[in-house]
């Protein structure tokens, strides 16, 4: 009886999701180790180390969820037509965001991408669709300018 219970728990683990996030965390850790082996200077590790630490923390949270929740608790809406269309819309918006970064500026492209993400995610209040993307883009651009000594194109900021 005890062996069957253990086997049932092992089957309920979301192995595919766990393997994916573990592989991504391993890549982030390998990249961090490689970057630290090259140089420990702040300029070398400014974005790499905090990002790798964030990835590892997120891995721990997601892995714990994979172990507790299991594969049978996957959301049913993920396979439906509306869910697929939302996913495709976000992929298209991200592609346009990447293409627009250099052409229209990081600030405008980021504000438009965040607005598109909010809209696709279901936000319909006009005030939120205007103010949040503008505030988010301004905070990110000004934060990047404070941290990164390299110029990047912007249209407004």
Written account of the structure:
- With 157 residues, the chain is mostly helical.
- It folds into 2 domains: 1-74; 76-157, no CATH class.
- Helix content is 78%, strand content 0%.
- The protein has helices spanning 2-12, 15-38, 42-45, 48-69, 81-104, 106-120, 126-147.
- Helix 2 packs antiparallel against helix 4 (48-69), helix 5 (81-104) runs antiparallel to helix 6 (106-120) and helix 6 packs across helix 7 (126-147).
- The longest helix has 24 residues, at 15-38.
- It starts with a helix and ends in a 10-residue tail after the last helix.
- The model has no long low-confidence stretch (mean pLDDT 86).
- Residues 26-153 form the DUF1468 domain.
- It holds the Pfam family TctB.
- Keywords: Membrane, Transmembrane, Transmembrane helix.
- The chain crosses the membrane at residues 12-33, 45-67, 88-121, 127-148.
- It comes from Elioraea tepida.
List the helices and strands and how they pair.
Blueprint: H1 2-12, H2 15-38, H3 42-45, H4 48-69, H5 81-104, H6 106-120, H7 126-147
Helix pairs in contact: 2-4, 5-6, 6-7
Contiguous runs where pLDDT drops below 50 for at least 5 residues: none
Helix content: over 70%
The end-to-end distance, rounded to whole angstroms, is 65 Å
**H/E series, N to C?**
HHHHHHH
Mean pLDDT: 86
- Class from secondary-structure proportions: mainly alpha
- How many distinct folded domains? 2
Quantity of strands, as a count: 0
Largest sheet: none
Percent in strands? under 5%
Query: Helical stretch count?
Result: 7
Whole-number radius of gyration?
Answer: 20 Å
Q: Write down the overall geometry.
A: flat
